[in-house]
Amino acid sequence: MIYSPKVMEHFRNPRNVGEMEDPSAVGEVGNPRCGDIMRIYIKVEEDVITDVSFMTFGCGSAIASSSMATELIKGKTLEEAWGMSNKAVAEALDGLPPVKMHCSVLAEDAIHIAINNYLKSVGREPWDYTESDHDHHHDTHED
Hints:
3-stranded antiparallel β-sheet
C-alpha cells in the first residue's frame, strides 16, 4: 500500500498527541474488531477550540488522520470544526488509500461526538448528527 509523504509524516511525528488534562469534552469512536479506536480531547473557550489532542489505537492511517484532524480544528469555532469533513482530512493528507478512508471518517465522528458532549455539558442542545457505521470490513494485515 502506498501512502503519501504527508500521511507518513503525521504517522511518524503526530501532532497534538496525548491525553489532555481537564478537557472541556472528549469524543471517542472506534471499531475494536479491526483495532481502530480514536479519542479526541477538546478545550473550548467562548465557543472556540483553544486546544485539542488525541489518543489513537490503530493503523498508521488512523494516527495520521487523528493528527491532521486536530491540526485542522485547533483555533476554530465549534461551527467551523463541525463543518470539517473526513474528505477535508484526507485531502489535507494528500489522500488516503480507499481501504483506509474509514480512518478519516473516525476522525470526523470523534470530533462531532466531542463537540456534542461539550454542548451537553454546558446545558445546550447537541447538534443533529448520525455517527457513521464503523463496522467496516477490510484486510487489517495491509499495514
